[in-house]
Amino acid sequence: MLSALREDALGTTGDGFVLRLSLPWIRSLPLWSLTELEVTIDGCPEPRLRIEMGGRAIAPPDLADEPGWWFVQDRLVLRGDQTVLPGDHEVSVSFYLVVPYLQAGPDGPLRLPFRFDRTLSLNDPSALTTVALDVA
User: Fold this and answer.
1) What pLDDT, on the 0 to 100 scale, is given for residue 123?
2) Which of 39, 60, 97, 123 sits at a 20 to 30 Å CA gap from 22?
3) Which segments of the chain have a pLDDT < 50?
4) Residue 126: its pLDDT value, please?
5) Domain ranges of the chain
6) Please, are residues 21 and 11 in contact by the beta-carbon 8 Å criterion?
7) Is residue 10 a contact partner of residue 17, using CB atoms and an 8 Å limit?
8) What is the pLDDT of residue 128?
9) What is the reported pLDDT for 55?
10) Are 128 and 8 in contact (CB under 8 A)?
11) What does each C-alpha distance from 2 to 23, 25, 85, 108 come to in angstroms?
12) Which residues pair with 19 in a beta bridge?
């Protein structure tokens, strides 16, 4: 299985954290394929999770109205308000992927649950490297 949380996925900003989420699927998918996204850091859920898209921040449910694609080589940039200090953090991400080209029966396309748990290190809280392949 492909991992959605790479070693460099966690970063920090002046007002919270960023988490770069990789697509754990073999093909690119429409952005609306990502549903029921939840993030916890050190056991604390992030209630104000946003996705940064082309200079704007949108709530995860608003992906349903986005026309773009989540390409295999891209990472979605998730932002939250929790303060993340230097050191190791237990990060958990859960979501569903709707695979529009695979029918699961008469009710519609295949809907796959995903959950990723990983200890991620934040050694330099001021280092927030821009990744060229983040979804814009």
Assistant:
1) 65
2) 123
3) 125-134, 136
4) 45
5) 10-122
6) no
7) yes
8) 45
9) 87
10) no
11) 8, 7, 28, 24
12) 10, 78
How far is 74 from 81, CA to CA, in rounded Å?
A: 23
Q: Which helix (H) or strand (E) holds 54?
A: none
Using CA atoms, how far apart are residues 104 and 126, in angstroms rounded to an integer?
45
8 Å CB contact between 41 and 80: yes
The span from the CA of 48 to the CA of 105, in Å, is 34
Ramachandran region, residue 107 (left: φ > 0; alpha: ψ -120 to 50; beta: rest): alpha
* Cβ(63)–Cβ(31) below 8 Å: yes
Q: Identify the pLDDT of residue 136.
A: 46
Provide the pLDDT for residue 1: 52
Instruction: Tell me which residue has tokens 């060229």.
Output: 132
**Vertex 73: Cα angle to 51 and 3 (nearest 5):** 80
Q: Which segments within the chain are labelled E, that is strand?
A: 10-13, 16-22, 29-30, 34-41, 44-45, 50-53, 56-58, 69-70, 75-80, 87-105, 108-122
Question: Taking the alpha carbons of 31, 131, 8, 28 in that order, is the dihedral positive or negative?
Answer: positive
What integer pLDDT is reported at residue 135 of this predicted model?
A: 52
Two tokens, residue 92 = 């958990």
